[in-house]
Write a structure and sequence with these properties.
The protein has 635 residues and is α+β, with helices and mostly antiparallel strands. 57% of the residues lie in helices and 8% in strands.
Amino acid sequence: MIEAMNLAILVAAGLIALSVFTSLISFRVGAPLLLVFLAVGLGAGEDGIGQIHFDNAPVAYFIGSVALALILFDSGFETRLQSFRAAAAPALTLATIGVLITTGLAAIAVRLIFGFGWPVSLLTGAIISSTDAAAVFFLLRVGGITLRDRMRSTLEIESGSNDPIAIFLTLALVEAVRAGTGAASLTWALATSFTLEAGLGIAIGLVGGFLIVRVINRVALDPGLYPVIVLSLALLIFAATGMLHGSGFIAVYVAGMVAGNATLRASALLRRFQSGMTWLAQICMFLTLGLLATPSQFPAVFLPALGVALVLTFVARPIAVWLCLLPYGFSRNETTFVAWVGLRGAVSILLAILPLIAQLPEGRMIFNGVFLVVVFSLLLQGWTIRPLAKWLGLIVPPRIGPVDRVELELPGRANHELVVYRIAAQSPVARGERIPRWARPALIVRDGQSVDIHHAGRLQSGDQVYIFTPPQQVRLLDRLFATPMRLAEDDRDFFGDFTLNADAPLAEVAESYGFALPEPGETRSTGAFLQDAFGGRVEIGDRLPVGGVELIVRAVDDENLVTEVGLALEPSRGAQPKLPVFQNLSEIAAWFRHRLRERRARRAAPPPRPAAADPAPQPAAEALPTMPEGTGRPD
């Protein structure tokens, strides 16, 4: 008994440690990290070198569900409310209507390729319909891809909120397949059940999130216990919602968003702990799913799974994304990228366990096929996301250089933070720029020795400066302590050839750079002109063609007002569409207006005047004979 227990602990801990160390390979060669975790699980399984026999589907589903609940809670915790407001409409459209469209199109491919009946085909389509939150968050946050805030938030919110929809669809369709429910009654049952489960999940998530905030801020605990109570309350919300027949995954995501956007005691400690727990959850989930798979069974479904994966990647997901994003003004390049970042991951494999648990005749084939679809997705899409973002001109160049900063937690609910900066060589502070009065240093450490701030003299490169500051001012301090930026060609292409003050009158800018204004007598400043053109909601990288040039938002302040404008004399490569598809509603409307103007112009044009009669027509005998088609010149 004791030996078996020790062996189980040894194997589990060894696999987790091996997964962590193999992550170094991912960072070096750019491989999707979650694929590495999955490969470790496969290698340890019954067909791998580990020879571990694990075929307990209910246990695997239990482990995966708990891990997914933790991942979704952290996803909500890290979602800023400002980003949610900016991207909620397109993201939730993708997470609901997009999942349904993808399910339908994928079901057609499964029906034609695998030959399943329609109920089983719809079930398989639902299993592979959602993107994977863990994969998307890793590639966007850890992978070093800096995108515009609206598009990044759309992808993150979609990946975090579409899992509950796919899970609900899969559970309902599994029950429908077992019960043999008809199509009409199935559609009505799905609609009513989803409304009830989603509504209950949102309600309990809101209440649970406020409960977490109240407990953390009211109860005095040892600092090490705050992460424990938050984790336990998150799982309590997840389980209680499920027992009340609501969506626990929606509830835990909403609760995380409520708690993450509140002022919390020990917030920095909570974020560090949850980051580690999320990594552990991802590793455990992928290892478990890898152990459950049997690679020797893959060749039988390899080609059909490849066919479904190609249809899903190049047809189903792009069509669903294009239709969902039509009303929201995304550019063609942005729609292309959102369509490509539809990675399938652990959630799809986790849902593929349900047909096994339900003992459906096609259960094993569905699981193996879905497993291969996920592998294809991680290999094809996971390896190409950064090159595609660069080709589409969507990577936002950093506005400041690297910053060496550490944040320290203050006790209680203090409204200040203690931040520690190491002064970079040639940074503004190192070159003599003064630190603002509201951020005077409390301590300076130079060459390992504490130095009184009144006798430290001029700050030097390498000094560590301790500053108490309000959290909203940290971004301003980062600019003072950052490594100097070196403007690259990509930066100039993204932000324009010239930098303008947002207060500069647009009329004077047009006169200086020689472009025509859209309306004579323009009196607004350049920043106000851009602000009005985008309806007051601007973000860095927004571009507006004006009179043959482009005005680009280079910087905004905390109140979302334009403070710096770029000017490109020619449309940049990043703004030009790379594909002739994915037009948005404004482009489609412009095309129809153009066609309508052309039609009206043809109708209004005077009829062609008849040619003047020849005053001396040739006699008929002298006219050239007509050549029959396909013959040579006449004799």
